[in-house]
Specification:
This protein is α/β, with parallel strands linked by helices and about 325 residues long. The protein is built from 13 helices and twelve strands. It is about 35% helix and about 20% strand. It has a five-stranded mixed beta sheet.
Length: about 325
């Protein structure tokens, strides 16, 4: 059995407030901008990795304060383009309008994928009838015009019970990714569901509701398998459940994805930010796995170190040719 070196995710979020890892106030730059401080905010999906890195980082670098917040990917990019943070956690690539906002504020950035995630559909642990779901069934449930109210309306033979939905909030990169895959357009979704930028809220919601269906990052499922059950997704080869292996080898599709950090180039000139990002990339292979995600290849991490050291700015996803390409195709030929 794998030894866990970190506290459960729900406890990490609670402790963050007490020990300075919670989001800083929007106008709280006096404290956050203190000497040798690194400010990070954004995706709740990436949060467990960045927080684990920050915890490890404090031992060799006790003089550098790292604050890690959760405002969702979109919320993080807003703070990033406002100059309020040094690093944005993101569960999807930066959008053109977000890149334009950063450019308008004269903020260049270095895009660094740091892990793979499998967006995971979950039901209550006592739900035994959902054996799998197809993308078509998910669309039927989550489409903006959906009128599905009961499980029996999803598939014949399922119980005539109310279906209660839980999912990421609109500022979340997970929400963008899920809606694009399932509904064909980012942000296109029915409105009558319980939404939160904090995945722990969604975990507790599904865990306490026997008629629930929710979605969030794989690590939050992995940490709560005693309360939740992952739903396999129907692929051309049959139903595939999310796991480290199926996410890494690409068979868990189309819901596996890379996740990122974005470092502001000007901030990266400060020794403390440079030290933290270098430490992040050096330790990501170990820490990514320990908190429940899937590590990149050694070649990709080496390429990210080169990309950061050389301050290669911009997003590879800005090119229309990027669609459908793997991280190897996108980054190993450009670094």
């Amino acid at each position: 059995m794998k030894t866990k070196l970190f506290l459960p995710l729900a406890m990490l979020v609670a402790l963050a407030s007490a020990f300075g890892c919670a989001p800083r106030e929007k106008d709280g730059s006096a404290t956050a901008a203190a000497e040798k401080a690194v400010r990070v905010d954004g995706s709740s999906t990436v949060y467990p990795i960045t927080e684990a890195v920050a915890e490890e980082f404090r031992t060799p670098h006790p003089d550098i304060r790292v604050t890690v917040g959760i405002s969702g990917t979109g919320g993080g990019f807003k703070k990033f383009s406002a100059g309020e943070i040094d690093i944005a956690d993101a569960s999807r690539p930066i959008k053109p309008e977000e890149a334009a906002a950063a450019q308008a504020a004269s903020i260049d950035y270095i895009e660094l994928p740091i892990a793979y995630d499998g967006l995971t559909l979950v039901v209550n642990h006592d739900n035994t009838f959902v054996d799998h779901l197809s993308i078509e069934e998910l669309h039927k449930i989550w489409a903006p015009e959906s009128q599905v109210k009961k499980w029996s309306e999803v598939r014949s033979g399922w119980p005539d019970e109310e279906l209660h939905l839980y999912g990421a909030g609109h500022d979340s990169g997970t929400f963008d990714y899920f809606t694009e895959v399932v509904n064909g357009k980012a942000q296109a979704c029915r409105a009558d569901y319980t939404a939160s930028e904090d995945d722990n809220v969604l975990v507790q919601g599904v865990a306490g509701d026997k008629n629930s269906l929710g979605f969030f990052g794989f690590a939050y499922y992995a940490e709560n398998q005693d309360k939740l059950r992952a739903v396999p997704i129907m692929t051309d080869g049959g139903p595939v459940a999310p796991s480290h292996d199926t996410i890494a080898n690409g068979t868990y599709k189309p819901l596996s994805r890379p996740i990122f950090i974005y470092a502001a180039t000007k901030a990266a000139e400060r020794p403390e930010v440079q030290t933290f990002v270098t430490f992040y990339l050096d330790n990501a292979p170990k820490l990514v796995s320990q908190v429940g995600y899937v590590a990149l290849s050694e070649q990709l991490y080496a390429a990210m170190k080169t990309r950061f050291g050389s301050k290669v700015t911009g997003s590879v996803y800005a090119s229309p040719d990027s669609k459908g390409k793997t991280l190897d195709q996108l980054y190993l030929s450009t670094t």
